Amino acid sequence: MSGPQPGMPGGFPGAPGALAGPPQKKLDPDSIPSITQVIEDDKARLGGQVFSTNIRGQVPPLVTTDFTVHDQGNASPRFIRCTTYSLPCTAELAKQCQVPLASIIKPFAKLPNNETPLYVVNHGETGPIRCNRCKAYMCPYMQFIDGGRRYQCSFCNCINEVPVFYFQHLDHMGRRVDFYERPELSLGSYEFDATLDYCKNNKPPNPPAYIFMIDVSYSNIKSGLVKLICDELKTLLEKLPREDGAEASAIKVGFVTYNKVLHFYNVKSALAQPQMMVVSDTAEMFVPLLDGFLVNYQDSRAVIYNLLDQIPDMFADTSESETVFAPVIQAGVEAFKAAECSGKLFIFHSSMPTAEAPGKLKNRDDRKLVSTDKEKTLFQPQKGVYEQLSKDCVAQGCCVDLFLFPSQYLDLATMADVPSHTGGSIHKYNNFQVETDGEHFLRDLRKDLQKSLGFDAVMRVRTSTGFRATDFFGAVYMNNTTDVEMAAVDCDKAVTVEFKHDDTLSEETGALIQCALLYTTIGGQRRLRIHNISLNCTSQLSEMYKCCETDSLINFFAKSAYRAILNQPVKNVSDILVNQTAHMLACYRKNCASPSAASQLILPDSMKVFPVYMNSLMKTAPLVGSTELSTDDRAHQRLSVMGMGVEDTQLQLYPRLIPLHDVDVSGEAVPAPVRCSEERLTDSGLFLLENGQSIFLWLGQASPPDLIQSLFNAPSLAHLQQGHMFTLPELDNPLSKKVRSIIGELLEKRPYSMKLQIVRQRDKPEMLFRQFLVEDKGLHGGTSYMDFLCYVHREIRQLLT
Questions:
Q1: Per-residue burial over 545-558, b = 16 or more CB atoms within 10 Å of its CB, e = otherwise
Q2: Measured between alpha carbons, how far is 774 from 35 in angstroms, rounded to an integer?
């Protein structure tokens, strides 16, 4: 097949997949490919349907489409998505098209209620069955031969004996008779109970623990934050995650407060009052008590309640404003070591650690470095103490979740280095105020504390012969080139894995990927979680392009660009992104499209909106050389994206802009989003914009008074308070209920909480909102989508001549 045939996908007005004529100054914005249109089309075609995974190399519906997965031998796209589902057969072809070959793996992805949770397989004393040579786990791709007595591994072709207990006869098709009874033979994803060989020191693990570490320095006490945390924990600890079917959570809890020194609390259930022990020698960190520090919450509830009541009062008169930070993490690691368990530290911290102690930091924020060759140093963590801490944390299975409440620069690049290598999350609340940010922070804390996750995890990605995993991007630690180590991995974290050829792939056998994750459950069991996927291989570039997935490609490019800025100037990285975009599209034009005038821009159907995402990526804070952006904010966005899955990067790079002024208040439906551009806003309109990190309600200056009355209980826009507004009042009318329910559902659905910002057209805060209209020119530099498309088109034409 040679490129788009008449009537084939890929077309927008003009010609199949073409923009007619030389790029004129005034192209019609409606004639260039639109993300909202692509999303709506996919929903119309595949929304609400069942996606069965029984076919090799099948391209799934988009991440923005609601569908149900039926696992029939390949992992659900919720667990694994790929940049293309048809790999080029040779390294030459791959080099020619420059399309990265990668998978985005989210091993703990949440499954909707109507999909079956993973089966757990137990092979008894012998443990999971594995190939003797390459150690791949038993899966649907293994070929049983010799009447079922042996099997050939599809990854390395080695022939293995079938253990006696596992023997089963084959049917006339050569399939085992018990094929459908065994998850590992018929499903793409499943778990194995791990034997003691898979445990540290060959003994079963203890259940994990959570330690809450609260900075009680002056600013946190004064803002009311410490009291807010203590009050919330009283109810939140009732909701610690537990194994399915378990009565109570097996997770133990502990409490530390700190400023320049650390205070540990004994909350043993036999005590009438909690006891405090102070460690002031922060250079040699140790945990002053073993018994009574990590406890079962249900047993010690009364003592813990007492403690949470007392903490805000104990430090009410503090004037201590200096803090330590590295020793706090060190204390958590030591506590887990002593208890022989893995776990998570929840650290609530406000300022740069300047007190004399290991890991003390000094201000190195220098915006003069922006747009110079030294800009990369702003993103690099300071070496030494924190590097070693990451290593110690991973070795112990200690994950760090960091909640930051800064009022000025605090060197986030260094402070967030440990969370970003231990599978942790980094939350940041600038100039925190309880009234406006309290709920927003508590939503994050609740989500974080209740997430399903695995601890002390190691992931291996195996492939069939001809290609291999070469690079890994994520909130992970790599001690060697193959083992991806994660102190914890939760349902939102994804690892992006790049593959390279080391031989020719065969169209007949295809390509296989097996991701195996060894981890400890929240109940303290050692398990292996296996995800398998089979892809096609092709010697036709047109087939490879047809099976590409733009949302996965952009996830890969975002992570690889965000890693690259650690080592080279931001400008170089941006140039590479543009060149590679032009190269990928020129290769399609040259090899796959039917002949047409050079002045036509022809894009593969699967990538027709790729330039929108790429242009948006280049306008994100880490890649924009602007001195107006805060260094900490840039570092924060860089690190957040490294752990994201495909859904999250898609939304971050193309926010949803939802018109609410004519919403059907009686129906279930949410209005279809419109394109992210100022041209789509109307003076009399009301729009909601969200990208998974921020959420805005935009009010046009001519908003009808009855709309304003229904939502704000005010007669007109002019009556609303000037400046920043953050909440919608709870009013008893259909419009208010509908809008609040739409916002509530979004807050529920996204991995992070978002703080609602209400902005009026032409008010000052509207500038914040405008930077999310990604089809327009960037506020801090960066071109509009239209200009970028014309620029890429020129680059393509140069490459072709």
A1: bbbbbbbbbbbbbb
A2: 11
* 8 A C-beta contact, residue 351 and residue 406: yes
- DSSP-derived pairing of the beta strands 102-105 and 495-501: antiparallel
| Phi-psi category of residue 753: left, alpha or beta, with phi > 0 → left and psi -120 to 50 → alpha | beta
- Compute the distance between CA of residue 463 and CA of residue 537 in angstroms, rounded to an integer: 13
Q: Structure tokens of 786?
A: 């239209």
Contact 767/779 with Cβ under 8 angstroms? yes
pLDDT given for residue 26 in this prediction: 60
d(CA 17, CA 328): 57
Specify whether the CB–CB gap between 700 and 716 falls below 8 A: no
Complete edge-to-edge strand list for the sheet that includes strand 686-690: 656-659, 686-690, 695-699, 756-760
Within a 13 Å sphere around the CA of 322, how many CA atoms are in the beta-carbon half? 10
**Nearest to residue 650, comparing CAs of 681, 688, 610?**
610
pLDDT tens sequence across 289-327: 989 999 999 999 999 999 999 999 999 999 999 999 999
Integer-rounded Cα Rg, in Å, for the chain is: 27
Contact criterion met (CB below 8 Å) for 724 and 764? no
Which of 76, 104, 136, 73 lies closest to 463 in space, CA to CA?
136
How far, CA to CA in Å, does 149 sit from each of 122, 187, 263?
21, 22, 62
Task: Name the nearest CA neighbour of 612 among 59, 37, 86, 42.
Answer: 37
- With beta carbons less than 8 A apart as the criterion, state whether 648 and 692 touch: yes
- For 621, residues 6+ apart whose C-beta sits below 8 A from its C-beta are 629, 633, 634, 637, 780
Spatial CA neighbour of 555 closest among 594, 624, 610, 480:
610
What are phi and psi for residue 503, nearest 5 degrees? -170, -175
What does the chain come to in residues?
Answer: 801
Give how far the C-alpha of residue 468 lies from the chain's centroid of Cα atoms, to the nearest Å: 24
CA distances from 141 to 101, 153, 177 (A): 21, 8, 16
**Nearest CA to 70 among 114, 128, 6?**
114
CA-to-CA distance for 218 and 224, rounded, in angstroms?
10
Measured over the CA atoms of residue 481, residue 482, residue 485 and residue 491, the dihedral's sign is positive
The reported pTM is 0.95
**What is d(CA 774, CA 770) in angstroms, rounded to the nearest whole number?**
8
pLDDT at 4: 33
Cα–Cα distances (Å) from 185 to 194, 254, 545, in that order, read 18, 43, 31
Report the distance separating Cα 388 and Cα 690, nearest Å: 38
DSSP tag of 725: B
Contact 711, 681 (CB under 8 A): no
Neighbours of 503 (CB within 10 A): 12
CA distance 400 to 325: 12
**What is the DSSP track for 449-501?**
HH--EEEEEEEEEEE-TTEEEEEEESS-EESSSS-EEEEEEETT--EEEEEEE
Backbone angles phi, psi at 147, to 5 degrees: 65, 15
Helix, strand, coil fractions of the chain, as percent rounded to 5 = 35, 20, 45
182-213 core/surface letters (b: 16 or more CB in 10 A; e: else)? bbbbbbbbbbbbbbeebbbeeeebbbbbbbbb
Are 351 and 219 in contact, with CB atoms under 8 Å apart? yes
Torsion of CA 91, 92, 94, 95, to 10 degrees: 110
Q: Looking at residue 725, what is its pLDDT?
A: 81
Q: How many angstroms separate the CA atoms of 175 and 168, rounded?
A: 10
798 burial type by CB count under 10 A (0-12 exposed, 13-18 middle, 19+ buried)? exposed
Give the pLDDT of residue 723: 62
End-to-end CA distance of the chain: 24
What letter does residue 666 receive in the DSSP assignment?
T
Question: What b-and-e string marks burial along 510-520, b requiring 16 or more CB atoms within 10 Å of the CB?
Answer: bbbbbbbbbbb
Residues in the chain where the model's pLDDT stays below 50: 1-24
